[in-house]
């Protein structure tokens, strides 16, 4: 009886810890893979509806496209330009294809390749978290945006996560690309 | 008393049509932003071309009357539509603009037939314009990369419009026909 009581006690403690962790994640504001996909798809839809005049909103640090520790950025793969970036205004209007991370990966070449796939895709690289100096592991979801009188435009947003594998992220993308469960773009 | 010489409104219409078509393509192929397209579209492609079109009425030229006035309205509508998008007034999505272009493609097809009865240069201009519109339609319905193809193709259209404008102006200032426009495609 005593043993059963102890087990239950431990279970309660474990459950409390688990709940605490989830609560902490929500409070500290860590963006999830699902959120990144939803935000990127909403951004592509927004630009489809609004055209090139929608670009400016993505430069707004306090706007809709910045949430928790993540944000959506917009870039032009055909003309090699950053179109909008809420955290790095210094990059806006500048060439992007030569940008590498600390492992020498050409970030935007990979993003452009992933974004041109039918449902978009993930790219893993190192980038600094908003407000942090050091580099973190970032995995971004890239997707083409269909805009009037423009071509080669993509939108992307990432999560900062040290543990999730690309396989797990692919599973999230696959789940969210099921038209019976999630509305098509 | 000598009869007062009148100018041909087509020179202004062709100038506005050519210049704004050209500058939109500079944007479509990625050389420049949309700002100058909007303002030139309103003033030259829109206002000036439409006035030229309305002046065509007095010359008895129904083709020019319809074409310049209509394409002037096209430019006014397109630029106001893009301004509307910026200010969230009746926002037009890419698909909406696609359908807008489809309607203009159908209209252009009617004038294209008429252009073949006028002269070769005009027939070629309208053939290129019609192809350009079709390419832009496709670019708005599933083939976005065609925007760039349409861009280069429509630059040729704009150049042809300027060629006809130059033909009229040079014939006037040189006193003889410098730039031939060719025979009608349909006799």
Summarize the structure.
The complex is a heterodimer of chains A (185) and B (187). Chain A is of the alpha+beta class. Chain A is 35% helix and 21% strand.
Descriptive tags:
A: alpha+beta; Beta-Lactamase; six-stranded antiparallel beta sheet; 4 helices; globular; B: 187 residues; mainly alpha; 6 helices; 75% helix
H/E element order of chain A: HHEEEHEEEH
* Residue-averaged pLDDT of chain A: 87
Number of strands of chain B: 0
The run of helices and strands of chain B is: HHHHHH
Structural class of chain A: alpha+beta
Description of the structure:
The complex is a heterodimer of chains A (185) and B (187). Chain A has 185 residues and is α+β, with helices and mostly antiparallel strands. Chain A has 2 domains: 30 residues; 146 residues, Beta-Lactamase (2-Layer Sandwich). In chain A, strands 1, 2, 3, 4, 5 and 6 form a 6-stranded antiparallel β-sheet that branches. In chain A, strand 1 and strand 2 form a beta hairpin. Chain A starts with a helix and ends in a 9-residue tail after the last helix. About 4% of the residues of chain A have low confidence. By secondary structure, chain B is an all-alpha fold. Chain B has one domain. Chain B is 75% helix and 0% strand. Chain B has 6 helices and no strands. Chain B is globular. At the A-B interface, helix 2 of A face helix 1, helix 3 and helix 4 of B. Chain B: It holds the Pfam family Gpr1_Fun34_YaaH. Chain B: Belongs to the acetate uptake transporter (AceTr) (TC 2.A.96) family.
């Amino acid at each position: 009886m005593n043993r059963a009581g102890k087990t239950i006690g431990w279970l309660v403690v474990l459950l409390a810890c688990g709940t605490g962790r989830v609560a902490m994640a929500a409070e500290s504001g860590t963006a999830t893979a699902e959120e990144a996909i939803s935000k990127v798809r909403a951004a592509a839809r927004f630009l489809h509806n609004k055209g090139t005049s929608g670009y400016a909103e993505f430069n707004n640090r306090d706007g809709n496209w910045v949430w928790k520790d993540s944000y959506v950025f917009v870039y032009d793969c055909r003309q090699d330009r950053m179109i909008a970036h809420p955290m790095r205004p210094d990059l806006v209007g500048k060439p992007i294809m030569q940008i590498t991370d600390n492992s020498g990966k050409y970030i935007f070449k990979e993003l452009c390749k992933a974004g041109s796939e039918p449902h978009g895709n993930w790219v893993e690289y190192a980038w600094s978290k908003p407000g942090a100096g050091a580099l973190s592991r970032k995995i971004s979801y890239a997707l083409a945006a269909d805009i009037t009188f423009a071509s080669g435009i993509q939108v992307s947003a990432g999560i900062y996560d040290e543990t999730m594998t690309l396989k797990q992220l692919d599973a999230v993308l696959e789940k969210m690309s099921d038209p019976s469960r999630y509305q098509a773009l | 008393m000598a009869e007062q010489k009148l100018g041909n409104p087509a020179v202004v219409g062709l100038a506005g049509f050519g210049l704004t078509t050209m500058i939109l393509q500079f944007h479509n192929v990625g050389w420049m932003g949309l700002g100058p397209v909007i303002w030139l579209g309103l003033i030259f492609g829109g206002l000036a071309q439409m006035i030229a079109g309305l002046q065509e009425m007095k010359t008895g030229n129904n083709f020019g009357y319809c074409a310049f006035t209509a394409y002037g309205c096209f430019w006014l509508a397109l630029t106001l539509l893009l301004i509307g998008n910026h200010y969230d007034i009746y926002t037009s999505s890419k698909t909406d603009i696609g359908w807008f272009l489809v309607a203009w493609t159908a209209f252009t097809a009617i004038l294209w037939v008429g252009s073949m009865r006028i002269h070769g240069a005009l027939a070629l201009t309208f053939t290129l314009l019609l192809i350009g519109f079709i390419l832009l339609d496709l670019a708005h319905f599933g083939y976005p990369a065609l925007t760039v193809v349409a861009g280069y193709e429509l630059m040729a259209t704009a150049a042809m419009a300027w060629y006809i404008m130059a033909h009229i102006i040079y014939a006037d200032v040189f006193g003889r026909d410098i730039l031939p426009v060719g025979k009608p495609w349909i006799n």
